[in-house]
Amino acid sequence: MRAPSLYNYFPSKALIVQAMLTDADKTDRRINAIIGSSDDLIGKLQQIIKHYFDLVARRERALWREIVLEVIKNAPEYVALQALKASGINVLRTLLRDAQQSGELDPYVDADLLAHTLHAITDFAFLRFLLEANPSKVVALKTLRSQVELLVQPYLRNG
Fold this sequence. Notes:
This protein is an all-alpha fold. It contains 8 helices and no strands. α1 (13-21) packs across α4 and α7 packs antiparallel against α8 (137-152).
């Protein structure tokens, strides 16, 4: 008799990653609380980024690294993670559009493009955090916060 395997529950590593990332109810509640908070746009963006880094930092980094590298090598599995990417971009897009409607963000900013750009720099920082030999979450978050602020600050309205 064969021992149960993780692959009995998840047919691919991409789906394991997705399950690790998405404690859907808890994550959705936290993201909605951040979006609904009275913080400014940059503060909300930084809280969302920290929330996602915390999800990764709480778990075994070596496992994350192995899974992410495997997913990147196997394009069909990577496609399975596109729903997570789309979800992250949608959260950012919603936050940016809300900021435009409230007058905090310039109404002429392309919220979709800015959401994709923010997601790309966050994704890159996440990969560096996973792949570096001795990463510091504090340094990674500080660098990413600076990049987000430099990207968004010019489009904030002062009035």
